[in-house]
Amino acid sequence: QVQIVESGGGLVQPGGSLRLSCAASGSVFRITVMSWYRQAPGETRDLVAAITMDGRTKYADPVKGRSTITKNNAGNTIYLQMNSMKPEDTAVYYCNVGYGLGFVPGDWWGQGTQVTVSS
Over the stretch 46-61, which tens digit does the pLDDT of each residue have? Predict the structure, then answer.
């Protein structure tokens, strides 16, 4: 069993920055990958960025070059720094924890944190 708590969402102006945090607790020893997904109203839940416990990263094209995903040394907390934010970044952002190979997401999700980019 793993518990996932996201934080850091809110309202940001276009061009601004935001840092999201995701903390996992419980069964964290075997985590292999942690990821951020987002879902806008009426849209699918899509990958934003992911990081494996050995430090490999993956970014979706819409955020590549203006986002950075990092993790703490313990491997149970990740961060997503997003810069030059756009209105189309508005969505609920979800953290995912995986125990499989590569960047494959797991079945464990956080409750989500709302990010709104608007002036």
Answer: 999 999 999 999 999 9
Secondary structure of the chain in the HEC alphabet?
Answer: CEEEEEECCEEECCCCCEEEEEEEEECCCCCCEEEEEEECCCCCCEEEEEEECCCCEEECHHHCCCEEEEECCCCCEEEEEECCCCHHHCEEEEEEEECCCCCCCCCEECCCEEEEECC
Separation of alpha carbons 66 and 48, rounded Å:
11
pLDDT at 75: 86
Going from the C-alpha of 2 to that of each of 11, 21, 77, the distances in angstroms are 28, 16, 12
Separation of alpha carbons 105 and 66, rounded Å: 22
pLDDT at 27: 87
Structure tokens at 65: 């070059």
